[in-house]
């Protein structure tokens, strides 16, 4: 069973579903019929970040402020690998001030290929939410053999 460290390179994401919008209610006087009310949704650029979880270890990326659905991080993370580790869970969230962060989507990456081959170059993984595709994230993995 692999032991040692797992190095993760969080590169970027694209095509993420925008969860950051504001609702505005507008009422206007309309001739003889009185008032007309409209509800408008205005989309803003998201501030995405990533939570990486390997068994009980969790690490958080920086927030890609205002980068919307095409964020770039180019950040490195390291996890200690022990017996029973088989996957890396990746959750993407939108940082919100004054309210709970929005869940954008997630992906589970099996680690067996990196344990067997030693590394996986940055690869695009499908991000899903409620079993629906909502973008992709690029992640590279490295596991030094015998370490």
UniProtKB/TrEMBL annotation:
<feature type="domain" description="C2">
    <location>
        <begin position="1"/>
        <end position="124"/>
    </location>
</feature>
<keyword id="KW-0106">Calcium</keyword>
<dbReference type="InterPro" id="IPR000008">
    <property type="entry name" value="C2_dom"/>
</dbReference>
<feature type="transmembrane region" description="Helical">
    <location>
        <begin position="21"/>
        <end position="43"/>
    </location>
</feature>
<dbReference type="GO" id="GO:0046872">
    <property type="term" value="F:metal ion binding"/>
</dbReference>
<keyword id="KW-0479">Metal-binding</keyword>
<keyword id="KW-0812">Transmembrane</keyword>
<dbReference type="Pfam" id="PF00168">
    <property type="entry name" value="C2"/>
</dbReference>
<keyword id="KW-1133">Transmembrane helix</keyword>
<dbReference type="InterPro" id="IPR035892">
    <property type="entry name" value="C2_domain_sf"/>
</dbReference>
<protein>
    <submittedName>
        <fullName>Elicitor-responsive protein 3</fullName>
    </submittedName>
</protein>
<keyword id="KW-0472">Membrane</keyword>
């Amino acid at each position: 069973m692999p032991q040692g460290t797992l190095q993760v390179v969080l590169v970027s994401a694209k095509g993420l579903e925008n969860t950051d919008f504001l609702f505005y209610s507008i009422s206007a006087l309309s001739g003889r019929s009185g008032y007309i009310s409209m509800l408008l949704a205005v989309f803003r650029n998201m501030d995405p970040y990533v939570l990486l979880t390997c068994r009980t270890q969790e690490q958080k990326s920086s927030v890609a402020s205002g980068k919307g659905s095409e964020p770039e991080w180019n950040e490195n993370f390291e996890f200690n690998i022990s017996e029973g580790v088989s996957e890396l869970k990746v959750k993407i969230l939108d940082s919100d001030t004054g309210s709970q962060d929005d869940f954008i989507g997630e992906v589970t990456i099996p680690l067996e290929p990196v344990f067997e081959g030693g590394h996986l170059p940055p690869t695009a993984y499908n991000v899903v939410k409620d079993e629906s595709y909502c973008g992709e994230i690029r992640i590279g993995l490295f596991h030094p053999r015998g370490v």
